[in-house]
Amino acid sequence: MSLIYQHARQTNIWLGHRTPEVENSFGAIKEARKLFPSLSAFELKGTVESIQKGTGLDFSRILGHLSRTFDWIPVSALLQRPWFRRKWVLQEVVMSENAVLLCGDDKLSWAILEDLMIYIRGFQLTIISENADSNPNVGAGSGNINAMATARHRKGGQPVFDLLTRAREFQCTDPRDHLYALLGMASDITEGPNRITPDYNITSDQVYRQLAAWCATVKGSLEFLSCGYEHILDERSFPSWVPDISKPNRETILSPRMHYCASRQTAPRLMLSQDQSTLTLGGIVIDELEVLGQPFTYASTRFPPVVAGTDRPGINYSTDHYLDQMAWSKQMMQECLAIASDLPGRTMSSERFEQFWRTMLWDLDGNMESPSAETGAIFKKLLLDLSTIFDDHDKEWGKSFIFTSQAIEPLFTAFYEDRRFSSTANGHLGCVPKRARLGDKLCIFHGGKTPYFIRPCENGQYQYIGICYLHGFMHGEALDLGIEIQDIALV
């Protein structure tokens, strides 16, 4: 089918009949798209500030218009249509030169919808996310549009694990299709004598094991350990090192833009048992988990009473939900500070504080580069602001807080969803998977980009837990410790 889409002059995509709840959704999308630069979102380069300067547009004014006067209800209803969540539809968009959406008699170029969603996400406009609060299908639909757009504009062939990472939130009825629906777009797994082709005579467990084994033995890569899916620990028929690609999980995702090289340029040293149940990797065990914080999963927290919709000087707490989030952020930061403290009274030396804030941000800024010292100063101010968030402040304080939180929180939330802050037996700070336990081991696998968590089990073997950030060990430093490489058997 992918070849048909690739060579078609136009691909018509049927979204269903035009019902009252989606009336004028296409018209609303077209009008909203006109507010942004005429160039495709993929053609614009630079920061929000530089793009505003180059185009003469005021994105804050656009946001105000879209938030206050624009009717997003039919658009939200459209994004709830099942098409936007089906994995098989990816190829309709990705492989087509000219895709056109049809809803009843209405038509809309896919490029218009794609550009609008990219601009909304790129400029951190919250219109879609606000609608997603009441219906998660809205958020899933808009997020999947961005995933399809990114895959569509990727020039050349696309490795299967890149597609798997982008397609994590798409759904399918047959669990085997989580892989098979992507094969027509993949450039690597369908080539050569060891290629994988659809086989509906085997189980989904066998399909996923075949995928991981192909990646390890044919491609010679460990990316199956960090592609954004669950690794099952409690099912003996399913090895812990095999990702269950029917269950997306942000704990184990590693973006290609994260330029870590924990094992430097070493090649994987691996051996797969004949029954594909045990994967043995060469590596070194460097530390053990000793202190573990709570998962970074938002949960309602008690906060000082305030009437919903009222203002405090400097900040407009428009909803109890926002105030609750601030209370949760404050509590979470206090816990992390307590774990990281190396001096009496829960304080830190300047060296330790730098380790702390860099760990909190995975040592990455918005451009996926190591942050400057200025970012550390902003982070320190955010901590101070959060400590007094419920005190009375003037408007200037409020403006300053908004600037500080907008500079830091997107970096933090990008890497910490469903993870935990931690400290090791040797005092190293890290960000670890939610399911990590005290006593889990940290290791470096040859050929791996990050440190990994493993859990000792019987017969000297281990279960695979997930990737982590461990400050001071993300760029090959562990290889200088003089620890002898050993065979680590994962079951």
Explain the layout of strands and helices:
Layout (H helix, E strand, L loop, with lengths): L1 H6 L3 E4 L10 H9 L14 H8 L3 H10 L4 H7 L10 H5 L4 E5 L2 E4 H13 L4 H6 L3 H17 L7 H7 L10 H4 L23 H14 L9 E5 L11 E11 L16 E3 L6 E14 L18 E2 L2 E2 L3 H21 L9 H11 L12 H15 L7 H22 L2 E6 L4 E5 L7 E5 L6 E5 L5 E6 L1 E2 L15 E5 L1
Textual characterization of the structure:
With 491 residues, the protein is α+β, with helices and mostly antiparallel strands. It folds into three domains: 2-152, no CATH class; 160-255, no CATH class; 304-413, no CATH class. The protein has helices spanning 2-7, 25-33, 48-55, 59-68, 73-79, 90-94, 110-122, 127-132, 136-152, 160-166, 177-180, 204-217, 320-340, 350-360, 373-387, 395-416, and strands at residues 11-14, 99-103, 106-109, 227-231, 243-253, 270-272, 279-292, 311-312, 315-316, 419-424, 429-433, 441-445, 452-456, 462-467, 469-470, 486-490. Strands 6, 7, 10, 11, 12, 13, 14, 15 and 16 form a nine-stranded antiparallel sheet that branches. A three-stranded mixed sheet has the order 1-2-3. Helix 2 crosses helix 7 (110-122). The longest helix is centred in the C-terminal third of the chain and has 22 residues, at 395-416. It is flat and about 65 Å long.
Summarize, please.
Helices cover 36% and strands 17% of the residues. The chain has helices at 2-7, 25-33, 48-55, 59-68, 73-79, 90-94, 110-122, 127-132, 136-152, 160-166, 177-180, 204-217, 320-340, 350-360, 373-387, 395-416, and strands at residues 11-14, 99-103, 106-109, 227-231, 243-253, 270-272, 279-292, 311-312, 315-316, 419-424, 429-433, 441-445, 452-456, 462-467, 469-470, 486-490.
